[in-house]
Amino acid sequence: MRPSGRQVSELRPISIEPGFTRHAEGSCLIKVGNTHVLCTASVEDKPPPFLRNTGLGWVTAEYGMLPRSTHTRSRREAAQGKQSGRTQEIQRLIGRSLRAAVDRVALGERQITVDCDVLQADGGTRCAAITGGWVALRLAVNKLLKAGVVTSDPIMDHVAAVSCGIYAGQALLDLDYAEDSEAGTDGNFVITGKGRLVEVQMSAEGATFSREEMFGLLDLAESGVKTLIEAQKVAVA
């Protein structure tokens, strides 16, 4: 039995509230169980310097956790004067994942920054950020299309992400903190609506894993991402 009482292939309850903030071109609050992430997408009418005069747009991301998003207060990274390696790694992952769904020629020479702020953490924050980040991005692009700023939809597909792992010898979908902290193997899977893999992060935390176990986790992830994409479709409908 999982600590949460869920079945091995059962996601935590998912909700996505679009348009959660007033000022951002696109935003949502995504809740995956007790993990809550605010995602906003901001449009700038110029690309980063390295893309000027190339005809290409850019999608990037920033990620952060509020001081009391976890059990004990953590200092704001701004107060420490630098981002942690974990933060930098996660926001690069979010940016890569979202760019996989974007036609940068159709986007034109502009940049969209997706900010993902963890309000409450209970495992899987990077996966929730990618899933919610796509919704914020989609809503921002919808505004560009409606205004005629872009004439061809630059978003080619959905992208969502979910964690899987081996806990107490059992392959599980969508790990919460209690499971993730004790998992012998854990992984994050970023997958498109067409079933294409964007990124797979897997590591043996306490026990090595076999090829068969790896593909078993991938099967769980694919089923979970299909459900997450259905939630995305409802949110942007």
From TrEMBL:
Keywords: Nucleotidyltransferase, RNA-binding, rRNA processing, Transferase, tRNA processing, tRNA-binding
Matches recorded under CDD domains: RNase_PH_bact
GO annotation terms (biological process): rRNA 3'-end processing; rRNA catabolic process; tRNA processing
Superkingdom as given in the UniProt entry: Bacteria
Enzymatic reactions: tRNA(n+1) + phosphate = tRNA(n) + a ribonucleoside 5'-diphosphate
GO molecular function, one term: tRNA binding
Binding residues for phosphate: R86, G124, T125, R126
UniProt xrefs under PROSITE patterns: RIBONUCLEASE_PH (PS01277)
InterPro entries linked: ExoRNase_PH_dom1 (IPR001247), ExoRNase_PH_dom2 (IPR015847), ExoRNase_PH_dom2_sf (IPR036345), PNPase/RNase_PH_dom_sf (IPR027408), Ribosomal_Su5_D2-typ_SF (IPR020568), RNase_PH (IPR050080), RNase_PH_bac-type (IPR002381), RNase_PH_CS (IPR018336)
UniProt keyword Zinc-finger, yes or no: no
EC number: 2.7.7.56
Short name of one Pfam family: RNase_PH
Function, in words: Phosphorolytic 3'-5' exoribonuclease that plays an important role in tRNA 3'-end maturation. Removes nucleotide residues following the 3'-CCA terminus of tRNAs; can also add nucleotides to the ends of RNA molecules by using nucleoside diphosphates as substrates, but this may not be physiologically important. Probably plays a role in initiation of 16S rRNA degradation (leading to ribosome degradation) during starvation.
Stored HAMAP family: RNase_PH
Family note: Belongs to the RNase PH family.
Subunit structure: Homohexameric ring arranged as a trimer of dimers.
Protein name: Ribonuclease PH
The organism of origin for this protein: Haematobacter massiliensis
